[in-house]
Amino acid sequence: MKAISTASLPDIVFMLLFFFMVSTTMRETTLMVRSQLPEATEVNKLEKKSLVSYIYIGPPMRQFQSLFGTEPRIQLNDSFKSLDDIRDFIASEREAMKEEDKPLLTTSLKIDKETRMGIVTDVKQELRKASALKIVYAARKAEK
Amino acid sequence: MARKVPEVNASSTADIAFLLLIFFLMTTTMNVDTGLTRMLPPMPDPNQKQEDVEVKRRNIFPVLINKSDKLLVRGEPMEISMLKDKTKEFIVNPNNDPNLSEIEEKEIPRIGKYRVSKGVVSLQNDRGTSYEMYMKVQNELVAAYNELRDELSTSVFGKPFSRLAKEEQESITKAIPMRISEAEPKDVGGK
């Protein structure tokens, strides 16, 4: 019996590769807090990822719990930050954007669903002070 | 006659491609970002004298969530399943009930005369409210507005709001403006 030709195998794999390269985005931050998002039915999609900056709030992951405890913390970029750092964070995110995009800055709040509202309210107040008014409460889409 | 080119062994290209594929699978994410979009109110200017925006009592639909995730709507405890319908009733006010929101007839382009509500939903929460509950309530409130918009849009344009043209969507938003105010932080449930 003749062996099956595998000459087209690279082509198939390359096709898969291109599919994944186009449809995915690079992971930018490593999550240090658990953020299990709540579900919502009325969500809309976020267009233009370049306009979005992310704030993560949730209890630290297992490996950081000995250092940071289990209370929900704020993560900006790649490290745990305090409330006062949010303003600097927003300022630097603004700085990195193109001039015409600056008013369109959107802040996506990725908050674990077991978080209490206290810390969320504080973050919202900080965002108001930094006049980053457009926010998105990140949520997973649930079926109706 | 062309010389015969010795064939290159291509059997390893598959392996190389697989390697690349696995690399991309590991380092990228495919999540689509979804969420509820909101505008925060701007911080009041401390130099400017604070003028109280006079909103009539009947036009406010206060929704309070306490620290044990219980709802208080217009002074009465309520289950979350009722919230959407109550909100819709408050905004539409079909029988001009003096307890529900004030209605003003306005001329809206492409729709004509429409009874525009002056109602504002005011969402207040305690510091101890869980985020999950808060999102559920937010979702119900947005759902109430979205359903009203869909109803109006199907009756006027014959298709749901999301499939309208941009100008048509603008008219609908003018007829049913989404007014959800997230009040200044206040402790409503005690410690």
Jot down its keywords:
heterodimer, A: 144 residues, alpha/beta, five-stranded mixed beta sheet, two-stranded parallel ribbon, B: 191 residues, Nucleotidyltransferase, domain 5, two-stranded antiparallel sheet, 9 strands, 34% helix
Characterization of the model:
The complex is a heterodimer of chains A (144) and B (191). Chain A has 144 residues and is of the alpha/beta class. In chain A, 30% of the residues lie in helices and 23% in strands. The mean pLDDT of chain A is 85. Chain B has helices at 13-27, 80-92, 131-156, 166-175; strands spanning 28-29, 34-39, 60-65, 71-73, 76-78, 103-108, 112-117, 120-125, 180-182. In chain B, the strands form 2 sheets. Chain B has a 5-stranded mixed beta sheet with strand order 5-4-3-8-9, covered by helices on one side. In chain B, helix 2 (80-92) crosses helix 3. Chain B starts with 12 loop residues before the first helix and ends in a 9-residue tail after the last strand. The model of chain B has no long low-confidence stretch (mean pLDDT 82). The interface between A and B is large, with 53 and 45 residues.
